[in-house]
Design goal:
There is one protein chain. With 408 residues, the chain is mainly beta. Helix content is 11%, strand content 39%. It has helices at 45-62, 196-202, 290-300, 315-319, 379-382; strands at 14-23, 28-36, 78-85, 90-97, 104-105, 116-129, 132-148, 151-165, 171-174, 210-215, 226-231, 244-246, 259-266, 269-279, 286-288, 303-305, 310-313, 324-328, 331-335, 358-359, 362-364, 375-377, 385-390, 394-399. A hairpin with a 2-residue loop joins strand 6 (116-129) and strand 7 (132-148). The two termini are 24 Å apart.
């Protein structure tokens, strides 16, 4: 969750563009659509996820600013939501990121200079990928924000970039915890900066610090790949069970993000001992500690596929796959066999992928992992469960009509 490097961080090289905004009883619902955004016709999610993990570890080791992990999926995938600023309004397509908390505009579409300069300087360094530093710096302006459907928020404080480096979006819509804004204000680095959700509550637009996230499992048809953000409350039309909340872990570095404690079993086989980790829309895969990765590979009979960097199984092995169980506090979430594999309709879009290959979505988190950072549950996990980010209660999950769907 940390940098963004809103899925995709599927990082499937997917583009999520917010369309209609619906307001109902102090809840704002923003529709999202995923579209492939490929370079050279293939995507290399494995390398981009590696960069994201490296940034999280770097933050823990060296104490870098908290948001330095949030946007490391710059080339393959983008999840954007439309936000309009100023009068007359100018629309910006912002990357939606649960791993950072600063909302800012102006990297591609220039700011219209319609607001009041507060004089507060802000800057975030998101990390390094491919030898390139990802960062922005700018000033906080007070302006009118329009979400659509006639809903406007006056006197909204948001950052406007004056300089940026290697960022391919208009900006970022940060949905991470407010603590991730520490050390981003130049003149008062110990202060916290209000998040997008904080500002909605302060403006009286919503009553509660709640963000609901819903994604359909990915298919080969981008027109049917629909997602939704819900601010202020849960969209109960999207869930098929009660929401069960998992408290935020107390173990760093995961405690700085939407981090929880969990263990994993494959059928009756222990895979991951209870550790802290993060729920991260900015990662594609499910990444687990090296020992757990080895256990899973052996249990599934998978082999490492060099061209893709993923585990690969035969059709017979796929037919023998067991449920993958995520044990969190009083709740267990289960990925059925079909939910454990990469969408086969996208095999040829995956760098090195073969049309008839069956690839697993479990990845090795890499060396130097520890109890405070033992897993990342990325987009391919989140698309099977409705996810709730609640400042008071932690991270909530519920099943959806697509939890057990056969889509891959």
């Amino acid at each position: 969750m940390f940098f963004t490097t809103f899925l995709l961080t599927l990082l499937l090289a997917l583009s999520i563009t917010g369309s209609p905004v619906e307001v109902r009883n102090s809840t704002i619902t923003l529709a999202l659509t995923r579209k492939l955004n490929l370079s050279n016709d293939t995507i290399d999610l494995v390398q981009e996820d590696k960069a994201r993990v490296a940034a999280i570890k770097d933050y823990h080791t060296h104490g870098r600013r908290a948001e330095s992990i949030s946007m490391l999926f710059t080339r393959s995938c983008k999840y954007t939501a439309a936000l309009s600023v100023g009068i007359p309004p100018r629309t910006y397509n912002l990357l939606v990121d649960t791993g950072s908390a600063t909302t800012w505009i102006g990297a591609k579409t220039p700011y219209g200079q319609t607001g009041v300069d507060t004089g507060q300087r802000v800057g975030v360094t998101y990390g390094v990928t491919g030898g390139r530093i990802l960062s922005f710096s700018g000033t906080i302006f007070r302006d009118t924000v329009t979400l659509g459907g006639g809903l406007t928020i006056p006197n909204y404080d948001l950052a406007v970039a004056s300089t940026w480096s290697n960022i391919r979006y208009d900006g970022i819509l940060g949905l991470g915890p407010q603590d991730l804004t520490v050390k981003t204000l130049t003149d008062s680095p110990d202060d916290r900066y209000p998040t997008f959700t904080d500002c909605l509550v302060k403006a009286g637009v919503i009553d509660h610090h709640i963000v609901g996230i819903f994604f359909r499992p990915t298919t080969g048809n981008p027109d049917t790949d629909v997602g939704e953000l819900s601010f202020g409350d849960i969209d109960y039309t999207k869930i098929t069970s009660n929401i069960v909340y998992i408290p935020i872990t107390e173990i760093t570095p995961s405690a700085n993000f939407w981090g929880i404690d969990q263990s994993i079993t494959y059928g009756d086989t222990d895979i991951l001992d209870e550790v802290a980790g993060i729920i991260d829309s900015g990662s594609s895969f499910i990444k687990i500690a090296p020992y757990a990765y080895r256990r899973y590979r052996i249990a599934t009979g998978a082999t490492f596929d060099e061209p893709t960097g993923l585990l690969r199984i035969t059709l017979d092995r796929y037919n023998d796959l067991q449920p993958l169980n995520f044990h969190m506090s009083q709740q267990t979430l289960t990925l059925v066999p079909n939910a454990q594999i990469w969408p086969r309709s996208l095999n040829q879009k995956l760098r090195g992928g073969e049309i008839d290959g069956i690839y697993l979505i479990m990845k090795n988190l890499g060396r130097a992992t520890h109890r405070g950072f033992g897993f990342i549950a990325g987009y391919l996990f989140m698309q099977r469960f409705y996810t709730v980010l609640n400042d008071d209660l932690g991270v909530g999950f519920a099943t959806t009509p697509f939890t057990d769907a056969i889509t891959n």
